[in-house]
Specification:
The chain is of the alpha+beta class and 124 residues long. It folds into 2 domains: 34 residues; 80 residues, no CATH class. The longest helix is centred in the first third of the chain and has 17 residues.
Length: 124
């Protein structure tokens, strides 16, 4: 953290001395940062499963690549089964989702609670 502050200060001094625009300094100061770890997101798609059942897919993505799929199938009594697949998976009978959710970033401190990520060692 201290090195980052020093880098900003040095760049600001150089900009002042050499008459560079402030925007150029901000860009240069952020180029070498290592805190830009890849984010893991999850999105869902829900499908009807006759009679009186439903399937929900949880798609986990990292670096715009699908890394894991969780499938939860529940009957009308809310009795559910869960299956995990590494990479992409979708059953052929699930063709037209009735609900989709946008991708949401999973905070780093909560990623270990997601079985799909821990089962296949995808948190490295």
């Amino acid at each position: 953290m201290e090195a980052t502050k020093n880098t900003h200060l040095i760049m600001l001094v150089l900009a002042t001395v050499s008459n560079l625009p402030h925007a150029a300094v901000a860009t240069k100061a952020t180029v070498g940062r290592s805190d830009s770890a890849a984010k893991i997101t999850v999105r869902t798609e829900s499908y009807p499963r006759p009679p009186y059942s439903g399937a929900t897919y949880y798609f986990y993505e990292k670096d715009d690549q699908l890394i894991c799929t969780k499938l939860e199938v529940c009957n009308k009594f809310s009795e559910c089964t869960t299956d995990y697949k590494k990479g992409w998976y979708k059953d052929q009978q699930d063709t037209d989702p009735f609900e989709k959710t946008p991708a949401t970033v999973i905070p780093r401190e909560k990623q270990g609670k997601h079985r799909c990520l821990t089962k296949y060692g995808l948190l490295k």
